[in-house]
Write a structure and sequence with these properties.
Elements lengths: L1 H20 L1 E3 L9 E3 L9 E4 L2 E4 L13 E3 L6 E9 L4 E8 L15 E5 L35 E8 L2 E6 L2 E7 L3 H8 L18 E4 L6 E10 L1
Antiparallel strand pairs: 1-13, 2-5, 3-4, 4-13, 5-12, 6-9, 6-13, 7-8, 7-12, 9-10, 10-11
Length: about 230
């Protein structure tokens, strides 16, 4: 019996370790390694590691340079992304995924990648648009905002894309869930700002990089990690 208990305990520990090993840290807490500004080779100077967080500080721009959205060096298809964000008062940012990192074809990250909105719902003008509030699938699906914490507080989010199903969690509660690429998805895009000519490939490619948005306001991200599914 003792040997059986020991074997079961060993199996449980190994299973737990295997699950933990699936997580890949996208931010080491100290540098911007693994990230670069859209279309560039390194991250702009306005993105810095500060006290274990990846912070965009617009005041750190020099002559308007050093900002821009930052993008993971690696691309992903089926994944579970997890992180925490904290937006400044009246601030705006976003977590964009399936980004095609090709500025020769696309002017901005959001021309190809859908976005989870990061916003101060109580202070930013964009919050007046119901599909532009924090936790929403930006301009496409209105989420449940009951679980969003206010400016200057950390929000934990999960973005899960697996075999055509997209799910957003805000502070461990599912706030958006939809299917990618079906007729309902195409109709969402047709009725959105992304149906305009500048975004002809938006929502059509379900593999790409992850980006954090420079929308001109201070924002912090931490505990950024991902699992390939």
């Amino acid at each position: 019996m003792k040997n059986l208990v020991l074997a079961l305990c060993t199996l449980l520990v190994c299973t737990k370790l295997t699950a933990q090993e699936k997580w890949i840290n996208l931010f080491d807490g100290k540098t911007t390694n693994g990230w670069h500004s859209f279309g560039e080779k390194t991250a702009g100077a306005a993105w810095k590691a500060v006290d274990g967080a990846l912070v965009f500080d617009p005041a750190a721009k020099v002559n308007g340079q050093g900002g821009g959205d930052i993008v993971t060096n690696e691309g992903f298809t089926n994944f579970h992304l997890q992180l925490e964000w904290k937006i400044s008062k009246n601030g705006n940012s976003g977590i964009i995924f399936f980004v095609q990192d090709d500025p020769s074809k696309y002017k901005n990250t959001w021309h190809t990648g859908p976005e989870m909105q990061v916003l101060d719902n109580n202070g930013h003008e964009d919050a007046k648009i119901i599909s532009h509030r924090a936790g929403n699938l930006y301009d496409l699906i209105v989420g449940n905002e009951d679980h969003v914490k206010p400016a200057d507080e950390w929000n934990k989010v999960d973005i899960i894309s697996n075999k055509g199903v997209l799910e957003f969690k805000m502070n461990d509660v599912t706030v958006v869930k939809t299917h990618l690429g079906d007729d309902a998805w195409k109709e969402l895009i047709r009725r959105s700002k992304f149906s305009k000519g500048e975004s002809p490939d938006f929502g059509k490619v379900f593999s790409g990089h992850i980006a954090l948005q420079d929308h001109g306001d201070k924002v912090s991200y931490r505990n950024i990690r991902i699992q390939k599914l």
